[in-house]
Amino acid sequence: MATEQKGTKKISVDHVNVRISISFLVLKLIAADVITTVVLVLLYSAIFQTGLQEWLPAATPEMGLVGIIALTVIESLLTVFVVLGWVSEYYEISSYGIAHKSGVIFKKVDRYGMQNIKQILISQGFFGKMLNYGTLTVFDWRLDKCAEMYAIHNPRRYLRILESILPNVDEHKSSFGSIEKEDDDEEMSA
Prior knowledge:
The chain is α+β, with helices and mostly antiparallel strands. It has six helices and ten strands. The strands form three sheets. A four-stranded antiparallel beta sheet has the order 3-4-5-6. Strands 9-8-7-10 form a four-stranded mixed beta sheet. Strand 8 and strand 9 form a beta hairpin. It starts with a strand and ends with a helix.
């Protein structure tokens, strides 16, 4: 469905998937690595400082190698778990509504109809501006509930997508620091 306009292609899609920022995935992976390293250091220091190596009949270099291999497998499984959690949790924005889908084994879907959304709040903190992530909060008046698209990458882009679907929505911006000029003004002048 691509159409040519002034040398550029315009692509239309029926929905957009939005995930938590990749920065958070990287931080979770680093945390998992640090935790397994700390556990390994604590385990070996507990064994050698208490003298348990003398009581363990299998305290040989081969058993140390088996322990390291076992810890590597545990760390790999933890990494797979973190990545699968990131891949399986996302928001789907379409002209009909917003769906929050999550769960690796047990799938859960929360739906919010576009006709019921009356307010959008965007917030970005200092680190959010640096790493280009933020939170979009939409208010569903029918459910009398707020839905947060937490720590998503490039929240202003998805705010513009929601504004194009809902032109009469109330929009509130909350940012850390100075007032910003909207990107839409620059795009219209170009």
